Amino acid sequence: MSAASFVVILPVKPPALGKSRLRGLPDAQRRDLAAAFARDTAAAARRTPGVVAVLAVTDDFRFARELAQDGCEVIPDGAGEDLNATLRQAAAEADRRWPGATPVALCADLPALVPDELASALQEVSGPTFVRDAAGTGTTTYAAPPDRFEPHFGPDSAARHLRAGAREVVAPVRTLRLDVDDLGDLGGALVLGVGAHTEDAMSTQPQPGDADGGPPLG
After folding, report:
1. Which CATH number among 3.90.550.10, 1.10.540.10, 3.40.1410.10, 3.30.428.70 corresponds to the domain 6-203?
2. Helix or strand or coil: residue 190?
3. Strand locations in the chain, DSSP E?
4. What is the pLDDT of residues 123-154, one digit of tens each?
5. Which residues, at least 6 apart from 115, have a Cβ–Cβ distance to it below 8 Å?
6. Is residue 86 within a helix (H) or strand (E), and if so which, with residue range?
């Protein structure tokens, strides 16, 4: 396998537990959007040049079936609440299945992600490398060879990755930086353009600011 090959690791919370900060949305729409974000992120990653597989990690067996039908490989989460431990275990599994490929941890809430921007970021991968989020303090993407794969997701993860010696991607990859945590982020993603699953989830549920009393997007 060539040095330019990557396996995207996608950690996915059960949709019923995800996106709790999308306040003002009905619970059903919040769940649908959490699932849609993950499916759109996976779809963009699968279309990215150099990505040989998307390895989703989730304990939601129903959603695991949907991800598998979308073309992802799926494994259960063996580390529970410790995201970084989950990612390290998944990276080891990725190395076993696709030896020679570089594991890439990717947040599952990037509904506006376009493959060309992920590809641009992956072109900068040389040793441990990360992508800072739009807010400036977090991380949406971390890549490293299997023997150096030590992610530091969590509060102030961008600074933690820098202190650990990871290089920061400098490409202007807007859709790779915009992880959706709240309604403001969702409005920004909709402006950039979201994937088909998120579009469907938005069109089939009440919009923020409608009769549910939620704030408007944007």
Report:
1. 3.90.550.10
2. helix
3. 6-11, 51-57, 73-75, 102-106, 129-132, 139-143, 167-168
4. 999 999 999 999 999 999 999 999 999 999 99
5. 44, 45, 47, 48, 49
6. helix 83-97
